[in-house]
Amino acid sequence: MGMKILMVNVVCGIRSTGRICTDLAYALKQSGNEVKIAYGRKQAPAEFQDMSIRVGNGIDNLSHAALSRLFDAQGYGSVRATKKFIKWVEEYNPDIIHLHNIHGYYLNITLLFDFLKKRNKPVVWTLHDMWAFTGHAAFCVGVPCFRYIEGCFDCPRKKAYPESLLDRSELNWRRKRNLIRSLTKLNVVVPSYWLADITKKSFLGIYPIHVIHNGVDTKNFKPVKHDIREKYGIKKEKIALGVAAIWDERKGLMDLVELSQKLDEEYQFIVVGLTNRQMESLPSNIIGIQHTNSVQELAELYSAADVFVNPTYVDNYPTTNIEAIACGTPVITYDTGGSGESASKFGCVVKRGDKEEMKKAIKEYAGKKLESGDPMMYDVSVNRTIEQYLALYSSLIRGGVKRTIFLIIIGRGVSGGLHRFSGGAEA
Length: 427
Fold this sequence. Notes:
15 strands; globular; 2 domains; six-stranded parallel β-sheet; alpha/beta; nine-stranded mixed β-sheet; Rossmann fold; 16% strand
Protein backbone atom coordinates (compact mmCIF):
# COMPACT_ATOMS: atom_id res chain seq x y z
CA MET A 1 0.00 0.00 0.00
CA GLY A 2 1.41 3.37 -1.05
CA MET A 3 2.04 6.43 1.05
CA LYS A 4 0.26 9.78 0.83
CA ILE A 5 2.90 12.54 0.66
CA LEU A 6 2.48 16.31 0.71
CA MET A 7 5.40 18.47 -0.41
CA VAL A 8 5.52 22.18 0.38
CA ASN A 9 7.74 24.56 -1.58
CA VAL A 10 7.74 28.16 -2.71
CA VAL A 11 7.39 27.18 -6.41
CA CYS A 12 6.26 24.10 -8.34
CA GLY A 13 7.88 22.75 -11.50
CA ILE A 14 10.09 25.80 -12.12
CA ARG A 15 13.54 26.84 -10.90
CA SER A 16 15.78 24.37 -9.13
CA THR A 17 13.71 23.62 -6.01
CA GLY A 18 10.48 23.46 -8.02
CA ARG A 19 11.96 20.91 -10.40
CA ILE A 20 13.39 18.93 -7.49
CA CYS A 21 9.84 18.64 -6.10
CA THR A 22 8.20 17.60 -9.37
CA ASP A 23 10.97 15.10 -10.19
CA LEU A 24 10.47 13.55 -6.76
CA ALA A 25 6.69 13.62 -7.13
CA TYR A 26 6.67 11.85 -10.49
CA ALA A 27 9.03 9.15 -9.32
CA LEU A 28 7.09 8.64 -6.09
CA LYS A 29 3.83 8.32 -8.01
CA GLN A 30 5.41 5.70 -10.26
CA SER A 31 6.30 3.79 -7.09
CA GLY A 32 2.62 3.61 -6.16
CA ASN A 33 2.41 6.65 -3.85
CA GLU A 34 0.02 9.60 -3.90
CA VAL A 35 1.72 13.02 -4.01
CA LYS A 36 0.57 16.64 -3.87
CA ILE A 37 2.76 19.76 -4.05
CA ALA A 38 1.63 22.89 -2.21
CA TYR A 39 3.33 26.03 -3.51
CA GLY A 40 3.05 29.76 -3.01
CA ARG A 41 4.67 31.74 -5.84
CA LYS A 42 4.29 32.01 -9.61
CA GLN A 43 2.05 29.58 -11.48
CA ALA A 44 2.73 25.88 -11.77
CA PRO A 45 3.19 24.84 -15.42
CA ALA A 46 0.15 23.14 -16.96
CA GLU A 47 1.65 19.64 -16.78
CA PHE A 48 1.82 19.88 -12.97
CA GLN A 49 -1.67 21.22 -12.32
CA ASP A 50 -3.10 17.84 -11.35
CA MET A 51 -0.60 17.38 -8.51
CA SER A 52 -0.36 20.96 -7.23
CA ILE A 53 -2.30 23.28 -4.94
CA ARG A 54 -1.47 26.95 -4.50
CA VAL A 55 -1.25 28.56 -1.08
CA GLY A 56 -2.73 32.06 -1.25
CA ASN A 57 -2.42 34.33 -4.29
CA GLY A 58 -0.41 37.19 -5.70
CA ILE A 59 -1.96 39.77 -3.38
CA ASP A 60 -1.06 37.61 -0.37
CA ASN A 61 2.51 37.40 -1.67
CA LEU A 62 2.78 41.18 -2.13
CA SER A 63 1.43 42.03 1.33
CA HIS A 64 3.72 39.45 2.96
CA ALA A 65 6.69 40.78 0.96
CA ALA A 66 5.95 44.33 2.11
CA LEU A 67 5.80 43.16 5.73
CA SER A 68 9.12 41.40 5.29
CA ARG A 69 10.89 44.22 3.46
CA LEU A 70 9.83 46.83 6.01
CA PHE A 71 9.85 44.97 9.32
CA ASP A 72 12.08 41.92 8.72
CA ALA A 73 9.07 39.68 9.22
CA GLN A 74 9.46 37.04 6.53
CA GLY A 75 7.42 34.03 7.57
CA TYR A 76 4.97 35.99 9.73
CA GLY A 77 2.48 37.24 7.13
CA SER A 78 -0.01 35.22 5.03
CA VAL A 79 -2.29 34.50 8.00
CA ARG A 80 -5.48 34.05 5.95
CA ALA A 81 -3.74 31.97 3.26
CA THR A 82 -2.06 29.70 5.83
CA LYS A 83 -5.29 29.08 7.77
CA LYS A 84 -7.01 28.07 4.54
CA PHE A 85 -4.09 25.83 3.60
CA ILE A 86 -4.07 24.12 7.02
CA LYS A 87 -7.77 23.35 6.68
CA TRP A 88 -7.05 21.69 3.32
CA VAL A 89 -4.15 19.67 4.81
CA GLU A 90 -6.41 18.41 7.59
CA GLU A 91 -8.85 17.12 4.97
CA TYR A 92 -6.12 15.65 2.77
CA ASN A 93 -4.46 13.94 5.78
CA PRO A 94 -1.06 12.97 4.32
CA ASP A 95 1.14 10.32 5.90
CA ILE A 96 4.25 12.49 5.44
CA ILE A 97 4.53 16.26 5.17
CA HIS A 98 7.74 17.10 3.33
CA LEU A 99 8.78 20.75 3.62
CA HIS A 100 11.22 22.36 1.22
CA ASN A 101 11.57 26.17 1.00
CA ILE A 102 8.87 27.56 3.26
CA HIS A 103 10.26 31.10 2.98
CA GLY A 104 9.25 33.23 0.00
CA TYR A 105 6.32 35.30 1.30
CA TYR A 106 3.55 32.69 1.23
CA LEU A 107 3.32 30.89 4.61
CA ASN A 108 2.92 31.93 8.24
CA ILE A 109 5.41 29.76 10.11
CA THR A 110 3.80 30.33 13.51
CA LEU A 111 0.51 28.87 12.30
CA LEU A 112 2.28 26.17 10.29
CA PHE A 113 4.46 24.83 13.11
CA ASP A 114 1.68 25.07 15.69
CA PHE A 115 -0.38 22.89 13.38
CA LEU A 116 2.49 20.43 12.78
CA LYS A 117 3.06 20.16 16.54
CA LYS A 118 -0.60 19.34 17.22
CA ARG A 119 -0.75 16.92 14.27
CA ASN A 120 2.25 14.99 15.68
CA LYS A 121 2.97 13.03 12.50
CA PRO A 122 6.29 12.68 10.65
CA VAL A 123 7.69 15.81 9.03
CA VAL A 124 10.65 15.85 6.64
CA TRP A 125 12.33 19.18 5.93
CA THR A 126 14.80 19.45 3.05
CA LEU A 127 16.96 22.54 3.50
CA HIS A 128 18.06 24.22 0.28
CA ASP A 129 19.73 27.08 2.18
CA MET A 130 20.29 28.30 5.76
CA TRP A 131 17.12 30.33 6.35
CA ALA A 132 15.53 27.70 8.61
CA PHE A 133 18.01 28.35 11.43
CA THR A 134 19.08 31.99 10.97
CA GLY A 135 17.38 35.17 12.12
CA HIS A 136 17.29 36.59 8.61
CA ALA A 137 19.66 35.41 5.90
CA ALA A 138 19.25 32.56 3.42
CA PHE A 139 23.05 32.30 3.27
CA CYS A 140 25.48 33.81 5.73
CA VAL A 141 28.72 32.12 4.71
CA GLY A 142 29.88 34.86 2.39
CA VAL A 143 30.35 37.30 5.26
CA PRO A 144 31.12 34.93 7.06
CA CYS A 145 28.82 34.94 10.06
CA PHE A 146 28.41 32.30 12.78
CA ARG A 147 25.83 34.05 14.96
CA TYR A 148 23.21 31.45 14.01
CA ILE A 149 24.99 29.01 16.39
CA GLU A 150 24.30 30.87 19.63
CA GLY A 151 21.74 33.46 18.54
CA CYS A 152 21.49 35.98 15.69
CA PHE A 153 21.64 39.75 16.13
CA ASP A 154 22.59 42.80 14.06
CA CYS A 155 22.49 40.75 10.82
CA PRO A 156 25.33 41.66 8.41
CA ARG A 157 23.18 40.26 5.58
CA LYS A 158 20.19 42.52 6.23
CA LYS A 159 20.39 43.95 2.72
CA ALA A 160 20.63 40.52 1.10
CA TYR A 161 17.62 38.30 0.44
CA PRO A 162 15.21 38.71 2.16
CA GLU A 163 16.19 42.40 2.22
CA SER A 164 14.57 44.45 4.98
CA LEU A 165 14.58 48.01 6.37
CA LEU A 166 14.61 46.98 10.02
CA ASP A 167 16.68 44.27 11.69
CA ARG A 168 14.71 41.80 13.83
CA SER A 169 17.18 38.96 13.43
CA GLU A 170 17.54 38.43 17.20
CA LEU A 171 13.77 38.08 17.69
CA ASN A 172 13.37 36.00 14.51
CA TRP A 173 16.06 33.54 15.59
CA ARG A 174 14.47 32.97 18.99
CA ARG A 175 10.98 32.61 17.51
CA LYS A 176 12.17 30.11 14.90
CA ARG A 177 14.07 28.08 17.47
CA ASN A 178 11.09 27.84 19.80
CA LEU A 179 8.63 27.07 17.01
CA ILE A 180 10.68 24.45 15.20
CA ARG A 181 12.05 22.69 18.27
CA SER A 182 8.50 22.11 19.49
CA LEU A 183 8.26 19.30 16.91
CA THR A 184 9.06 15.77 18.08
CA LYS A 185 8.88 13.97 14.72
CA LEU A 186 11.05 16.16 12.51
CA ASN A 187 13.80 14.79 10.28
CA VAL A 188 16.09 17.19 8.43
CA VAL A 189 17.47 16.44 4.96
CA VAL A 190 20.33 18.37 3.42
CA PRO A 191 21.67 17.93 -0.12
CA SER A 192 25.34 18.33 0.81
CA TYR A 193 27.82 17.43 3.53
CA TRP A 194 28.75 21.09 3.62
CA LEU A 195 25.26 22.07 4.78
CA ALA A 196 25.09 19.05 7.10
CA ASP A 197 28.20 20.28 8.91
CA ILE A 198 26.63 23.73 9.31
CA THR A 199 23.17 22.49 10.29
CA LYS A 200 24.42 20.22 13.06
CA LYS A 201 25.91 23.36 14.75
CA SER A 202 22.54 25.13 14.68
CA PHE A 203 19.47 24.63 16.87
CA LEU A 204 18.33 22.02 14.32
CA GLY A 205 21.22 19.84 15.48
CA ILE A 206 18.95 18.05 17.96
CA TYR A 207 17.22 16.31 15.05
CA PRO A 208 18.43 13.49 12.77
CA ILE A 209 20.16 15.06 9.76
CA HIS A 210 20.23 13.01 6.56
CA VAL A 211 22.39 13.76 3.54
CA ILE A 212 20.52 13.02 0.32
CA HIS A 213 22.09 14.57 -2.74
CA ASN A 214 19.86 16.24 -5.30
CA GLY A 215 19.30 14.26 -8.48
CA VAL A 216 17.87 15.03 -11.91
CA ASP A 217 15.61 13.11 -14.25
CA THR A 218 18.10 11.52 -16.62
CA LYS A 219 15.30 10.76 -19.08
CA ASN A 220 15.12 14.51 -19.69
CA PHE A 221 18.66 15.59 -18.91
CA LYS A 222 20.87 13.52 -21.20
CA PRO A 223 23.00 14.16 -24.28
CA VAL A 224 20.56 15.22 -27.02
CA LYS A 225 20.70 16.40 -30.61
CA HIS A 226 20.46 20.15 -31.01
CA ASP A 227 20.79 23.06 -33.40
CA ILE A 228 22.23 25.53 -30.89
CA ARG A 229 25.08 26.62 -33.15
CA GLU A 230 22.74 27.30 -36.04
CA LYS A 231 20.09 28.90 -33.79
CA TYR A 232 22.51 31.46 -32.35
CA GLY A 233 24.91 31.73 -35.29
CA ILE A 234 27.87 30.39 -33.31
CA LYS A 235 31.01 29.96 -35.42
CA LYS A 236 33.55 29.74 -32.61
CA GLU A 237 35.07 26.35 -31.91
CA LYS A 238 34.11 25.89 -28.24
CA ILE A 239 31.08 26.83 -26.14
CA ALA A 240 31.27 27.70 -22.43
CA LEU A 241 27.88 27.75 -20.71
CA GLY A 242 26.64 29.40 -17.51
CA VAL A 243 23.13 28.82 -16.10
CA ALA A 244 21.39 30.20 -13.00
CA ALA A 245 17.79 30.72 -11.89
CA ILE A 246 18.78 34.22 -10.74
CA TRP A 247 22.18 35.78 -11.37
CA ASP A 248 22.38 37.67 -8.07
CA GLU A 249 25.55 38.82 -6.33
CA ARG A 250 26.43 35.36 -5.05
CA LYS A 251 26.30 33.58 -8.42
CA GLY A 252 29.43 35.16 -9.93
CA LEU A 253 28.13 36.72 -13.15
CA MET A 254 30.97 39.25 -13.25
CA ASP A 255 33.47 36.41 -12.97
CA LEU A 256 31.93 34.85 -16.09
CA VAL A 257 32.21 38.19 -17.89
CA GLU A 258 35.87 38.48 -16.91
CA LEU A 259 36.57 34.89 -17.97
CA SER A 260 34.96 35.49 -21.35
CA GLN A 261 37.50 38.28 -21.91
CA LYS A 262 40.47 36.29 -20.62
CA LEU A 263 39.95 33.24 -22.82
CA ASP A 264 40.95 32.84 -26.44
CA GLU A 265 38.74 33.87 -29.34
CA GLU A 266 37.82 30.23 -29.92
CA TYR A 267 35.41 30.32 -26.93
CA GLN A 268 31.80 31.44 -27.18
CA PHE A 269 30.10 32.12 -23.85
CA ILE A 270 26.36 31.57 -23.37
CA VAL A 271 24.70 32.71 -20.14
CA VAL A 272 21.14 31.66 -19.24
CA GLY A 273 18.85 33.20 -16.60
CA LEU A 274 19.46 36.92 -17.07
CA THR A 275 17.27 39.93 -16.42
CA ASN A 276 16.67 42.60 -19.07
CA ARG A 277 19.12 44.93 -17.34
CA GLN A 278 21.80 42.23 -17.19
CA MET A 279 21.23 41.43 -20.86
CA GLU A 280 21.80 45.07 -21.81
CA SER A 281 25.10 45.27 -19.92
CA LEU A 282 26.68 42.11 -21.38
CA PRO A 283 29.78 42.44 -23.55
CA SER A 284 29.36 41.53 -27.20
CA ASN A 285 31.22 38.22 -26.82
CA ILE A 286 28.50 36.72 -24.56
CA ILE A 287 25.16 35.43 -25.82
CA GLY A 288 22.57 36.18 -23.13
CA ILE A 289 19.35 34.20 -22.71
CA GLN A 290 16.57 35.11 -20.32
CA HIS A 291 14.87 32.58 -18.07
CA THR A 292 13.73 29.32 -19.57
CA ASN A 293 11.64 26.66 -17.89
CA SER A 294 11.90 24.38 -20.91
CA VAL A 295 13.74 21.24 -19.85
CA GLN A 296 14.26 20.37 -23.53
CA GLU A 297 15.91 23.70 -24.27
CA LEU A 298 18.15 23.39 -21.20
CA ALA A 299 19.19 19.86 -22.19
CA GLU A 300 20.07 21.12 -25.68
CA LEU A 301 22.18 23.95 -24.25
CA TYR A 302 24.00 21.66 -21.82
CA SER A 303 24.60 19.13 -24.62
CA ALA A 304 25.94 21.83 -26.96
CA ALA A 305 28.38 23.18 -24.38
CA ASP A 306 31.96 21.98 -24.28
CA VAL A 307 32.20 22.97 -20.64
CA PHE A 308 29.79 24.19 -17.95
CA VAL A 309 31.13 27.04 -15.81
CA ASN A 310 29.64 27.74 -12.37
CA PRO A 311 31.52 30.56 -10.59
CA THR A 312 29.13 30.58 -7.61
CA TYR A 313 30.33 32.20 -4.37
CA VAL A 314 27.55 30.83 -2.15
CA ASP A 315 25.65 27.61 -2.91
CA ASN A 316 24.34 24.38 -1.48
CA TYR A 317 24.25 21.54 -4.03
CA PRO A 318 23.38 23.26 -7.32
CA THR A 319 21.16 21.31 -9.69
CA THR A 320 22.67 23.16 -12.65
CA ASN A 321 25.90 21.24 -12.06
CA ILE A 322 24.22 17.86 -12.11
CA GLU A 323 22.00 18.80 -15.07
CA ALA A 324 25.15 19.56 -17.05
CA ILE A 325 26.82 16.35 -15.88
CA ALA A 326 23.77 14.29 -16.89
CA CYS A 327 24.06 15.84 -20.37
CA GLY A 328 27.68 14.73 -20.60
CA THR A 329 29.30 18.13 -20.02
CA PRO A 330 32.18 18.58 -17.55
CA VAL A 331 31.72 21.17 -14.79
CA ILE A 332 34.19 23.80 -13.63
CA THR A 333 33.24 25.42 -10.34
CA TYR A 334 34.62 27.08 -7.24
CA ASP A 335 35.10 25.18 -3.98
CA THR A 336 31.92 26.81 -2.69
CA GLY A 337 29.54 25.04 -0.30
CA GLY A 338 28.31 21.84 -1.89
CA SER A 339 29.08 22.93 -5.46
CA GLY A 340 32.44 21.21 -5.33
CA GLU A 341 30.81 18.06 -3.93
CA SER A 342 28.58 17.75 -6.97
CA ALA A 343 31.31 18.44 -9.51
CA SER A 344 34.44 16.83 -8.09
CA LYS A 345 34.07 13.53 -10.01
CA PHE A 346 32.90 15.16 -13.22
CA GLY A 347 35.14 18.14 -13.82
CA CYS A 348 37.36 20.43 -11.81
CA VAL A 349 36.99 22.36 -8.55
CA VAL A 350 39.18 25.45 -8.04
CA LYS A 351 39.69 27.88 -5.18
CA ARG A 352 36.84 30.34 -4.83
CA GLY A 353 37.56 33.54 -6.73
CA ASP A 354 40.67 32.21 -8.49
CA LYS A 355 39.78 33.16 -12.05
CA GLU A 356 43.21 32.29 -13.43
CA GLU A 357 42.88 28.70 -12.21
CA MET A 358 39.32 28.58 -13.52
CA LYS A 359 40.59 29.78 -16.90
CA LYS A 360 43.18 26.96 -16.96
CA ALA A 361 40.55 24.39 -15.95
CA ILE A 362 38.16 25.51 -18.68
CA LYS A 363 40.88 25.10 -21.29
CA GLU A 364 41.81 21.69 -19.92
CA TYR A 365 38.29 20.24 -19.73
CA ALA A 366 36.57 21.88 -22.69
CA GLY A 367 35.66 19.13 -25.13
CA LYS A 368 36.25 16.26 -22.68
CA LYS A 369 32.69 14.99 -22.83
CA LEU A 370 31.59 12.61 -20.08
CA GLU A 371 30.60 9.03 -20.85
CA SER A 372 26.84 8.63 -20.42
CA GLY A 373 27.29 4.92 -19.63
CA ASP A 374 29.70 5.63 -16.76
CA PRO A 375 28.36 3.89 -13.59
CA MET A 376 29.21 7.05 -11.62
CA MET A 377 26.43 8.82 -13.55
CA TYR A 378 24.03 7.11 -11.16
CA ASP A 379 25.22 9.67 -8.59
CA VAL A 380 23.32 12.42 -10.42
CA SER A 381 20.14 10.43 -11.13
CA VAL A 382 16.88 11.26 -9.38
CA ASN A 383 16.37 7.49 -9.08
CA ARG A 384 19.14 7.36 -6.49
CA THR A 385 17.55 10.30 -4.67
CA ILE A 386 14.12 8.62 -4.73
CA GLU A 387 15.47 5.38 -3.28
CA GLN A 388 16.89 7.28 -0.34
CA TYR A 389 13.72 9.31 0.28
CA LEU A 390 11.55 6.20 0.08
CA ALA A 391 13.78 4.51 2.64
CA LEU A 392 13.49 7.54 4.91
CA TYR A 393 9.70 7.84 4.51
CA SER A 394 9.22 4.15 5.25
CA SER A 395 11.39 4.29 8.36
CA LEU A 396 9.45 7.30 9.67
CA ILE A 397 6.07 5.63 9.19
CA ARG A 398 7.42 2.61 11.04
CA GLY A 399 8.77 4.94 13.75
CA GLY A 400 12.35 3.98 13.07
CA VAL A 401 14.14 7.35 13.31
CA LYS A 402 14.20 9.16 16.67
CA ARG A 403 15.09 12.67 17.70
CA THR A 404 18.64 12.93 19.03
CA ILE A 405 20.69 15.36 21.06
CA PHE A 406 24.32 14.81 20.00
CA LEU A 407 25.32 14.19 16.42
CA ILE A 408 28.14 12.17 14.92
CA ILE A 409 28.74 11.10 11.35
CA ILE A 410 27.83 7.45 10.84
CA GLY A 411 27.98 7.24 7.06
CA ARG A 412 29.56 9.26 4.30
CA GLY A 413 30.13 8.99 0.62
CA VAL A 414 28.68 5.57 -0.15
CA SER A 415 27.00 5.76 -3.54
CA GLY A 416 23.30 5.03 -3.37
CA GLY A 417 23.20 4.91 0.42
CA LEU A 418 21.31 6.98 2.96
CA HIS A 419 23.75 9.02 4.99
CA ARG A 420 22.65 10.15 8.43
CA PHE A 421 24.11 12.32 11.14
CA SER A 422 22.75 10.78 14.31
CA GLY A 423 23.48 9.18 17.65
CA GLY A 424 23.64 10.42 21.19
CA ALA A 425 20.89 10.59 23.73
CA GLU A 426 17.24 10.55 22.78
CA ALA A 427 15.21 13.66 23.62
